[in-house]
Structure formats: structure tokens, C-alpha cells
Design goal:
1 helix; 19% strand
Length: 75
């Protein structure tokens, strides 16, 4: 993970999470390349939340692989 440039605009995002079954927030960590993770599940078992997160991770992996393959064929 690369740090924000010095001239990056600071932004604030507000999310109404009152109906959220689970959340994961990933922030830059204290060390180079590290991350800080905040996560919780309420109204959804942690096992079910983990299943959903694995599904999202697979979708992101597939998208990244597809983008990489497209990039390789256009070079």
C-alpha cells in the first residue's frame, strides 16, 4: 500500500451503518505496507460474515486477474 501524496485531499465519508450486518474498515497501518483492520458482525454470524468476505475476495481476485490478462494482451 502506498502512502497518500502530501498534496492529497483529505476526505470524510459518512456511512449509515444502522442496518449493516457486518463491516470491515481497512486503514493504513503504522508501518510501511501495514494496515489496521476494524471489523465486527452483529445480526450475522461471524462464520456467515467470513463466507461473504471470501466471496468478495474471490470476485476481486477474478477482476484483478481479468484486468491483468487484458493488460497483457494489449501490450
Amino acid at each position: 500500500m502506498s502512502p497518500q501524496p502530501d498534496n492529497a485531499e483529505a476526505t470524510m465519508t459518512a456511512i449509515d451503518g444502522r442496518d449493516a450486518l457486518a463491516f470491515v474498515i481497512i486503514r493504513p497501518g503504522q508501518t510501511e505496507g501495514g494496515v489496521s483492520i476494524e471489523a465486527a458482525a452483529s445480526g450475522l454470524s461471524k462464520q456467515a460474515a467470513a463466507y461473504v468476505l471470501r466471496h468478495v475476495a474471490q470476485q476481486w481476485e477474478d477482476e484483478a486477474a481479468g484486468a491483468s490478462a487484458r493488460k497483457d494482451t494489449t501490450a
